[in-house]
Write a structure and sequence with these properties.
STM4215-like, 6-stranded mixed beta sheet, 140 residues
């Protein structure tokens, strides 16, 4: 097992890192205005809207390295009929974040991986709610 503690970024630091990547992604910005990409629920009902939020984390140790995983959830809402607008947003987010290394000063390696996506149609029958889960893996 690897010895000694290794500092890893806080969830808040990682959230800022991922948020910055999203609000500067031209493919996503073509679908969702930057002001509607947040880390909190948009209350005014303006669609499309997206939220990136932290869903927890856990340290791990192996014989070769120490590490930490953080889970993030990306929620998207559209107010259009059909799945295509919500799927396009999800595709843009996955293209911006999935399987792309991140430079993080306090970690030897960092990689974000998508591990699940699904959509729901809320009770209004029109809007779509897409949810995509990511795991951010840090190792020394």
């Amino acid at each position: 097992m690897a010895s000694g503690p290794t500092p890893f970024p806080s969830q808040a630091e990682s959230l800022v890192l991922l948020y910055d990547r999203l609000v500067n992604d031209t493919a996503l910005l073509a679908l969702v205005p930057a002001a509607q990409i947040t880390n909190h629920r948009v209350q005014d009902g303006v669609f499309p809207a997206c939220i990136l939020r932290v869903d927890g984390g856990v340290p791990f140790n192996t014989k070769d390295s120490n590490g930490y995983t953080q889970r993030f959830v990306f929620d998207s809402w559209t107010a259009e009929h059909g799945d295509e607008p919500a799927l396009a947003i999800n595709d843009a987010v996955v293209a911006a974040l999935h399987d792309i290394p991140f430079a993080v000063a306090s970690s030897g390696q960092s990689l974000l991986l998508q591990f699940e996506s699904f959509q729901m149609v809320p009770t209004d029958g029109v809007s779509h709610h897409g949810i995509t889960f990511f795991t951010h893996i840090f190792t020394n």
